[in-house]
Amino acid sequence: MRILLLSDDFLPRVGGVSHMMDRLAASFIRAGASCAVGAPRLPGPIPERPYPIFWEDRQRGEGRFNRPRRARAFIEGAIEEFKPERLLLGTQFYYAPACLALGRERGIPVGLYTHGMELRRALVEPARPLKSMVARLVGLRTFRDQALHNVAEADFLFANSHYTAGLVRSAGGRVETLVTGCGIDRATLEREVELTPDPDPGLRARRRAELGLGERKTVGFLGRVVPSKNLGGLVEAMARLPEVQLLVAGNGPELPRVQERIAELELGERIRLVGQIDDETKWRYLRCMDVLCLPSIEMPDGPVEGFGIAILEALAAGASVVAGRSGGMADAVANGEAGLLADPHDPDDLARCIGRLIDEPDLARGCVEEGRRRIANQFNWEAIGERVLAHLGEAPQRDSQPAP
């Protein structure tokens, strides 16, 4: 099968969707399919990839009215050169209108990946009939209308979690949604299991000493410091865990506010802010953490954690996990079997769950073992790529009547 994967969010941009699209394309190649990626050219180097890339060069300051025409011309060129049998949209918006239209015109089935936040934002945005009408008069759609149209028009739908699949149903998806989860490479899991065959607290303490992180038990946080990630809630929980330190890897617009609260609570001695880190450093930190905590919340305007790849990375490295009971993170921790779910709005509950995993090593070990088993069987890119390919190989289920 020949697949053209189109994603507005792609390398060298750092983030979960960009990483997912890269690993998905690579998994298609490993499974024996032919895959090419179409994406905007962004500043920064990327390593050599196992698949060809069609780069779109965009003009600085390009007006919104020119985007559909330019996107269509770009996709048409990629189709002519690569001759795909399937089109797969990795993201919802920039390429979606042209891709869905071209798929219809040329008889190429189109798949759409959904990640959670974009659909939730569309669903919480109130319908504005007048705004929708004006947008259509100039050949455009509102954010909400475009998201609902994309879901209704796709031949194949994919979701990163059961939570996201529920959003697809609410948005009017007309075909079955395949829930794929997210993953890490099998080779990465094998490497981490070899380095940490048993999640031994003593081994993590020695690793912390080697990194100059001190002797305290360590909770980690990985991610952008934005409101939906709720680092502030984790800081409040740390005030209830006087013997524990917090290691924060990430930057973002909420960081100054979080730093102010750290100072107010006089927690500076126990909270280390290390900023943005590279991949190698990330894994070194994960191997010395006792617990990774992702206390993400669902924001009123849409942002939500669709899955949480960092959860899988922590479990692979031998760290147990506390996740907020929100979005799609329940899938990543198997509803509490591979980690603990806490109320992310309640610092007492976050502290209680973190304390349990630190004080009960058998519980933490059991969660890590279950998490690693699930990664080996389900949440790895090789297995995910095979499931996506099998689904794309089926006959399209969508009816022939276009969505409005």
Labels describing this entry:
7-stranded parallel β-sheet, 13 strands, 44% helix, 404 residues, 15% strand, Rossmann fold
CATH architecture field of the largest domain? 3-Layer(aba) Sandwich
CATH topology of the largest domain: Rossmann fold
User: What is the radius of gyration computed over CA atoms, rounded to a whole number of angstroms?
Assistant: 22 Å
> Quick one: how many beta strands?
13
The arrangement of helices and strands along the chain is EHEEHEHEHHHEHEHHEHEHEHEHEHEHHH
CATH class of the largest domain: Alpha Beta
Query: How much of the residues is beta strand, in percent?
Result: 5-15%
The number of distinct helices, counting runs of at least 4 residues, comes to: 17
Please explain how this structure is put together.
There is one protein chain. With 404 residues, the chain is of the alpha/beta class. It is built from 17 helices and 13 strands. The strands form two sheets. The chain has a seven-stranded parallel beta sheet with strand order 3-2-1-4-5-6-7, sandwiched between helices. It folds into two domains: 2-183 and 381-392, Glycogen Phosphorylase B (Rossmann fold); 191-377, Glycogen Phosphorylase B (Rossmann fold, 3-Layer(aba) Sandwich). The longest helix has 17 residues, at 361-377. Helix 2 packs across helix 3 (96-106) and helix 10 packs parallel to helix 11 (255-264). The two termini are 30 Å apart. Strand 11, helix 13 and strand 12 form a beta-alpha-beta unit. The mean pLDDT is 94. It has helices at residues 16-30, 67-82, 96-106, 117-124, 129-137, 143-153, 162-170, 186-195, 201-210, 231-238, 255-264, 279-286, 309-316, 329-332, 347-359, 361-377, 381-392, and strands at residues 2-6, 34-40, 53-56, 86-89, 110-114, 156-159, 177-179, 217-222, 244-249, 271-273, 291-294, 320-324, 340-342.
